[in-house]
Specification:
The complex is a heterodimer of chains A (360) and B (432). Chain A is α+β, with helices and mostly antiparallel strands. Chain A has three domains: 89 residues, Alpha-Beta Plaits, CATH 3.30.70; 156 residues, 2-Layer Sandwich (Sulfite Reductase Hemoprotein, domain 1), CATH 3.30.413.10; 57 residues, 2-Layer Sandwich (Alpha-Beta Plaits), CATH 3.30.70.20. In chain A, 26% of the residues lie in helices and 21% in strands. The longest helix of chain A is centred in the C-terminal third of the chain and has 17 residues. In chain B, the strands form five sheets. In chain B, strands 8-9-10-15-16 form a five-stranded mixed β-sheet. The chains are: A alpha+beta (360), B alpha+beta (432). Strand 4 of chain A pairs antiparallel with strand 6 of chain B, so a sheet runs across the interface.
Chain lengths: 360, 432
């Protein structure tokens, strides 16, 4: 393209594109007319329309962060087996729709050959929904794609089988903003130290009133240090959330002594059975040992094994814990219950046991 | 944003940065993004290869020092103020080729349907103008074309725009929305998710492309209470499909399910797990459902996909105010419209107008950097309802208030309105 900067092209504000132009023809034909579905095996959905049409969906895991060669390889597979149509799930799994049952097994075989694990359906551990991390975020405490790769390697067998009591949705977030979202298990950065302020830079880089306003506990105030207008922190009030770091990078929240990992359990999006829930703290202060996060992986594995062994069919992680009680959860996972598990935030009282119900 | 040091890509080709930390992420059964990055780095003769070499160098540097090295800035395309996430490297002396590595957030079709043809075209654009690295998809639901220089941004946008794609949201603006697969492939879908998704977002594109809201505002559309796009947790305006008549029961299929799975298993996993104890199994292995007690949670339908299905009188619920942690903690949406029919064009139009009312309320009333859920907490739900023209409804609460600290001197007038609404709902006329 030549540099015709004097006359830039006006955008065609097309907005959200029409999905029908890309949709598999069997889906388009039976749009809004489906009757039921079942799952012939892990990684395969079988939907039957009221018209009698059937479609098989084969789901496979991807690395989400994809080079064009990977995407083209996925497209080649789609051209060979799935009429040139694909879709993605919210957890970055790719789905191939095939109308002909005879194509299902060859498609599964091909995905296997090319290194895309088939699974992620039903009572499995699906792909971890994650954030950008060191690859692209401006405020990350850890990486996303890399540590998720390590976790999914460990959980591979649980992705390709449906051996869990119910589905397991794991998320990771590289800071406490929790962009990864709620999950049955959430692996999130948890800072342990107040930000370290570079007073030379604050006045030039940060809009100070906005930073003061950002603090959830009003611990930041304007100050003069060595004649420079800057900010200071009441470290007794500070909850080390990192909210001031995005609008004011000289308030560095990350550091080997500060950036730790916490694991949370029992979040759930679905309304099935119980209402949606937030995840709750299981353990904090695990080391941020990228690339493999061995300490984190060990705890995730313990939690998943305890859930797999003890939960009833269709109980999600949080529902299982609610039945067995938190005492047994901490016993079964060999994790410590500490004063830090007692919520102190707005609404904390509602999280306390205000009854005589206790678990032994 | 200096453009001083121009690159000399070819000379760099031989100097591959060692990436010992990243190299550890290539084994194992899960697809490796590192192997993918290396394919881009090693793409012979490609313009982006030196950029990806330096990107990998910087990422490995992050792994070694456990710190991120990107900072934001301002980059946009002609006529737009948002949609691009600018990234400038803080370690560009060491890794100059990836010193600018911006992301174009591109709105996907609802339900993430693609032909291989359009995906290949997107790949071609991103090889020509960007880095060849694409995330499908980001947490907001965008196609993320990652790794563009400031110089190439306009051309990259022009190319994807000519393919029929548009930029998504970033900053204090209407954001890219998400819908589940819905009516396209799911029998549990209770409305045309994609139609409403496109209707709402495409109506308010100005709020997306030229950010001027107090903070972000997100829509998400899930076809039923399973909420596969996490709307209640993540959206300021969550639309969830539901129905108000009876669950449809195919008793022959109920019997088949029990014959296959067992009576005890069915009692344990269906009857006992109903949150409102609305299901009972009869002695002849047929099933009764007390539909007035049912809360449309979807569990029994999820388990018995052939025997049970949502009713015919379908519609949606709207929940307002979900968000992630920053800064007051995670919040879920509150039920604001328990049931709205979405059958006709007029129904969709009315829902779009309600969305507009909510966006306008947010624009006018939220403080800077405040999400609408926080605004509601600050002013109270009654004030929000009054502002958006919605009457109080018992489905909005877990239970009525427990605090007596409220002024109730107009209670009788409010009660009269309630009875008037009930009478109107029942089809009766009310005297002035």
């Amino acid at each position: 393209m030549s540099n015709e900067k004097a006359t830039p092209r006006a955008a065609d504000e097309v907005g959200v594109p029409d999905h029908f132009q890309y949709m598999h023809p069997v889906l388009e034909k039976n749009h809004g007319n489906w009757d039921y579905h079942d799952r012939p095996r892990a990684g395969v959905l079988h939907h039957v329309s009221k018209s009698g049409d059937e479609v098989y969906t084969v789901r496979a895991g991807t690395q989400r962060q994809m080079d064009v060669f990977t995407i083209r390889k996925l497209c080649d597979i789609g051209d060979e087996f799935a009429d040139g149509h694909v879709r993605f799930t919210t957890r970055s799994n790719i789905e191939y729709m095939v109308a002909d049952e005879a194509k299902v097994q060859p498609l599964i075989d091909k995905l296997g050959e090319e290194g895309f694990p088939v699974g992620g359906t039903g009572a499995s551990v699906s792909m971890i929904s994650h954030t950008q991390g060191w690859l692209h975020c401006d405020i990350p405490g850890t990486d996303a794609s890399g540590v998720v790769k390590g976790l999914m390697d460990m959980l591979h067998e649980e992705f390709i089988h449906e051996n869990m009591p119910n589905r397991v949705r794991i998320t990771t977030s590289c800071c406490q903003i929790n962009c990864g979202g709620q999950g049955d298990i959430a692996v999130n950065v948890q800072y342990t130290k107040p930000p370290k302020i570079n007073h030379d830079l604050v006045a030039n880089v940060c809009e100070r009133p906005a930073v003061v306003a950002r603090c959830p506990v009003a611990a930041i105030r304007p100050a003069m240090v060595d004649g420079k207008a800057t900010l200071e922190i009441d470290e007794k009030k500070c909850v080390c959330c990192g909210a001031c770091y995005p609008p004011c990078p000289p308030m560095q929240i990350n550091g080997a002594d500060s950036t730790k990992i916490a694991i949370w359990v029992g979040g759930k999006h679905s309304n099935a059975r119980s209402k949606p829930t937030f995840h709750k703290l299981a353990v904090a202060n695990l080391p941020n040992n990228a690339p493999h996060w061995p300490e984190v992986n060990a705890v995730v594995k313990r939690i998943i094994q305890a859930y797999k062994k003890d939960a009833k069919h269709w109980e999600r992680m949080g529902e299982w814990i609610e039945r067995i009680g938190w005492s047994r959860f901490f016993d079964m996972t060999d994790l410590a219950f500490t004063k830090h598990h007692l919520d102190t935030w707005t609404g904390a009282r509602k999280t306390m046991n205000q009854s005589a119900h206790i678990h032994f | 944003m200096k453009d001083g040091d121009h690159k000399d890509g070819k000379a760099k080709e031989a100097e591959i940065h060692p990436t010992p930390m990243l190299d550890q992420l290539e084994d194992g059964p899960w697809p490796s993004f590192v192997t993918g990055l290396k394919r881009l780095r090693d793409a012979k003769g490609e313009r982006y290869a030196p950029m990806m070499n330096d990107l990998m160098g910087q990422l490995n540097h992050s792994y070694e020092n456990r710190k991120g090295y990107w900072k934001g800035g301002v980059v946009s395309v002609y006529g737009y103020g948002g949609g691009i996430i600018p990234r400038y490297s803080e370690v560009s002396e060491k890794f100059p080729e990836s010193k600018e590595f911006h992301t174009l957030r591109v709105m996907p079709p609802p339900g993430f349907h693609y032909t291989t043809e359009i995906l290949r075209k997107l790949c071609d654009v991103w090889e020509e103008h960007g880095s060849g690295l694409i995330a499908l998809h980001g947490q907001s639901g965008d196609i993320m074309l990652q790794g563009c220089t400031t110089e190439n941004t306009q051309a990259a946008f022009d190319a994807i725009n000519e393919l029929g794609f548009d930029l998504g949201g970033a900053g204090p603006a209407l954001r890219t929305a998400m819908s589940c697969v819905g009516a396209a492939r799911c029998e549990q879908s209770c409305f045309d998710e994609a139609k409403l998704h496109r209707g709402i977002i495409n109506r308010f594109l100005d709020e997306m492309h030229r950010p001027s809201l107090p903070y972000k505002f997100k829509f998400k559309f899930s076809g039923c209470g399973n909420d596969c796009v996490n709307a209640i947790h993540r959206a300021d305006f969550a639309v969830i499909g539901t129905w108000r008549d009876d669950i449809k029961i195919n008793q022959a299929k109920v019997k088949e399910h029990i014959a296959e799975k067992g009576r005890k298993y069915t009692i344990d996993t269906v009857v006992s797990m109903c949150p409102t104890r609305a299901i009972s199994l009869n002695d002849d292995d047929t099933m009764d459902i007390d539909n007035r007690s049912c809360v449309r949670c979807m569990h029994c339908i999820n388990v018995m996909t052939k025997a049970l299905s949502p009713g015919d009188d379908k519609g949606v619920s709207v929940m307002i105010g979900g968000k992630r942690s920053l800064k007051v903690g995670d919040m879920m949406g509150i039920m604001v419209k328990p049931f709205v029919k979405l059958d006709t064009e007029e129904d969709y139009e009315e829902m779009e107008e309600f969305a507009e009312t909510c966006i306008e309320f947010f624009a006018d009333n939220a403080l800077e950097h405040e999400r609408v859920g926080e605004t509601i907490d600050r002013i109270g739900l009654p004030a929000f309802l009054e502002a958006v023209g919605v009457e109080a409804d018992p489905n909005m609460v877990n239970h009525p208030r427990t605090s007596s600290y409220v002024r109730t001197d107009d209670f009788d007038e409010e009660a009269a309105k309630w009875f008037e609404r009930k009478a109107l709902d029942a089809g009766m006329t009310v005297d002035g």
